[in-house]
UniProtKB/TrEMBL annotation:
It comes from Alkaliphilus peptidifermentans DSM 18978. The keyword DNA-binding applies. This is Predicted DNA-binding transcriptional regulator YafY, contains an HTH and WYL domains. The lineage of its organism: Bacteria, Bacillati, Bacillota, Clostridia, Peptostreptococcales. Keywords: DNA-binding, Transcription, Transcription regulation. InterPro entries: CBASS_pafABC_assoc_protein, DeoR_HTH, HTH_11, PafC-like, WCX_dom, WH-like_DNA-bd_sf, WH_DNA-bd_sf, WYL_dom. The keyword Ligase does not apply.
Length: 304
């Protein structure tokens, strides 16, 4: 696209003292005449590009304008570049790859930096996962509906037709935010729960979304929560901060007393099972009884 090429040309001129039309045409695989027209477009947009003729000629910016490229310190630019590099590997989205390539032009060739490392691709090598993400990206950009087979939190399978509006990454998990025709409302769909995804020919019109958007509330579901008190062996002290705010924990001797306010669902039971045999549910009693019942059921199923 021309706008992408214009941005790329501007970045290359900013990053070089001087660059020729031939060098730009070879890099962008277009004619010299096309580059000259692009330079005219940049000039009309108020960007002070001027040219010098002769063997040492080429395009460059006025020195006062070049100072703007220093709005980022080198270390700050390296952090952004590392993030963009990881993001373009985790997301099959051409715009992100394009931004990464253009931003990389602004850094010197010896800009490799490992002070901060980002790893954002937990499932991207999974073929089905990547194919679904590709389809959703195309559907969102072309305003096409998609048909999905989806598994909800209770492992119930359903068929949905959705209008994909936004792709949301929370932590290392991808969600799709869109209008669900089955529910006749906007919903968040976890990409890892999609069994299959198919691009449909029918297009959709943008509907007004409700505010605030789900990710602005950290995907809070609005479901009722329960106050929970746990007693956990101190041997798990190093593990707990990965899941629980330390402000909710209090050390008493060789135990850690934890106060939570969670929705009681399958995620909570899975979390508690991951703490066995180092956890005791103090309150509420009904949660403790249900947890014991699940443990006994598991024991019975695993008896020889």
């Amino acid at each position: 696209m021309k706008i992408d090429r214009l941005l790329g040309i501007l970045m290359m001129i900013i990053n070089n003292e001087k660059i020729t039309a031939r060098e730009l045409s070879e890099y962008f695989q277009v004619s010299v005449r096309t580059i000259q027209r692009d330079i005219d477009t940049l000039s009309m947009a108020g960007i002070p590009v001027y040219s010098e003729v002769g063997k040492k000629g080429g395009y460059q910016l006025l020195s006062e304008y070049k100072l703007d490229k220093n709005f980022l310190k080198t270390d700050e630019a390296k952090v952004l570049n590392n993030l963009l590099e990881s993001l373009q590997k985790a997301v099959p989205y051409t715009e992100i790859k394009s931004v990464y390539n253009k931003f990389s032009m602004l850094l010197p060739s010896d800009s490799e930096d490992h002070k901060i490392v980002f790893k954002l691709s937990p499932l991207i090598k999974n073929k089905r996962y990547k194919e679904n993400l590709d389809i959703i990206t195309k559907a969102r950009d072309g305003y096409h509906k998609i048909y999905i087979q989806y598994i909800d939190a209770n492992f119930q399978e359903s068929d949905r037709i959705i209008c994909p509006y936004t792709m949301v990454m929370m932590g290392s998990t991808w969600y799709i935010y869109g209008y669900c025709e089955l529910r006749e409302d906007f919903r968040m769909f976890k990409l890892s729960r999609m069994i299959s995804c198919k691009l449909l020919e029918c297009e959709f019109e943008i509907k007004e979304t409700s505010k605030p958007l789900p990710w602005e509330n950290n995907l809070e579901s609005g479901r009722p929560t329960t106050k929970i008190k746990l007693e956990i062996d101190k041997s798990l002290q190093a593990k707990l901060p990965d899941y629980i705010d330390y402000e909710n924990c209090r050390i008493e001797g060789d135990k850690i007393i934890v106060h939570l306010n969670f929705t009681v669902d399958e995620w909570l039971y899975s979390f508690l099972l991951g703490l066995v045999p180092y956890v005791k549910i103090i309150e509420p009693s009904w949660l403790r009884e249900e947890f014991i019942s699940r443990l006994n059921l598991s024991i019975e199923k695993n008896k020889l």
